[in-house]
């Protein structure tokens, strides 16, 4: 029965079991309690952390604060301005024109400000009508092949995508271009057209300045009709004659810490001593010149090949890109200006903007010395513009010289003609003007305020980064000519580069530079044929292209036909890169080498003549081979003649009329199969 019923308990066993159960229960409770306490502590810890972070949230919101600063509307309201002049500028001229227009405004009881579109939110244009008698003026330069300038790229992108209602906006546009280029004033024309499409009201016609002609005269002519149109629109009148108003005040530093003084840097103080990437226009890299050799065997010119070491700079470039270099003015010109004006050029000074609200605190990096300003920051070799002459006139003690300067700065036909002949055509720079007008002795600080900034010079890179990842090559010709006054004028950058000695310690071998990306690119497929046309130093990018095609071939890639049309004056005088080209041809990379020597025979022969000679082969490569065409060099004559030759070839072999042939070539351009890298 017991077997069938509940087991009978042994008293001793029962006590032990009971104690074990109690022990087990106690330890489980411990674990539970410890876990609970740990959990609560963890929860409390993180909860406490979150509570501590809550007061920091307003700090995160402060990121949005600069948006208010980027509103030009708020700035205009705060400073009582009603005219804003935006500039798209690559070389400083459009910025200069914008400053002149904004300065003009005071003569009509209006207040203007010049503005860099890169620094503001341009969608605020729709709010400009909140300001009484408001107007937006756009001084827009066109860069390269119809492109916006670097600082106007965002504005251009916004215009393309914008669907804003600009019906309350009043505007006017002055474009800066060059007629020798295919897309003359494309940016100015686009801004003018697009603003109207978005509903804005044009109050004066589009101005088209031509740098191949007389850009200064084009601007003055437009400006003298622009202001009367503004007066009529707003019902205002001129308050008086143009007057000289200083924009900056001089501060001379007698007791200054020299470590706080700029010595040629473009942006950050001591940036040349303590280099930090990324490198760009405001932060150039100091590259060492490792090679500087003369390329030509004879003739009066000096053609040179330079190599810049970019090791450890993290600078990347592609074949076809441009290298920008910041040159220095000739020290003898700087010294002569100092002597004529009786100035101690080593005086350390600052020019401070009298408008405290202006984003531009100084015309160039300050504090600095007059010597540094005239050497690295100011353009002293180009003929000064009329506004500079007008402002300087007050400092001529001779009445005749003063009248002459004022006349050249006027909009009268006689004054324009005098400016053209005496300044522009005679290539008189500021030193020549001071020499030829003995009574003109302006204060050096006002002269420094008026002179435009010295600009970077761009060169097509003559190397491939696949072959030369740590160096950038330049091919250039030194500019030197005699003016109508018998003076010898020298190109700033090329003569400065010529003087660079490889592997020397100190600044004698250093070049401040950065890379500007280009659309001038080899085809994506290496098997695509290329036709390259580049006489003179126009061969530069093609040296890089051929190097790259040779490298691709070494990698086992199928490389298409590589055809070069090159030209120079004489075979035994200025045939650039002769040995390199012969080697590339021998290796089979350069499948055709066509060279035109223009002066080796009675009748001049240029690259376009060789294209005509080989017209059947050219058409076959373009039509059947889908070849890409590249033209580099002189825009005024060569590029135009080459393009006309392609019209003829297309018309003849494609059985097309002239208009159809022109359209065919234009379509090649649109598709990126006809690329230009030209200058005038």
UniProtKB/TrEMBL annotation:
Pfam families: FAD_binding_1, Flavodoxin_1, NAD_binding_1. Residues 282-523 form the FAD-binding FR-type domain. Its EC number is 1.6.2.4. Keywords: Endoplasmic reticulum, FAD, Flavoprotein, FMN, Membrane, NADP, Oxidoreductase, Transmembrane, Transmembrane helix. It comes from the Eukaryota. One of its GO terms (biological process) is response to hormone. GO terms for cellular component: cytosol. The keyword Cytoplasm does not apply. Its cofactor is FMN; FAD. Residues 83-227 form the Flavodoxin-like domain. The chain crosses the membrane at residues 25-46. One of its GO terms (molecular function) is NADPH-hemoprotein reductase activity. It is an enzyme of class 1 (oxidoreductase). This is NADPH--hemoprotein reductase.
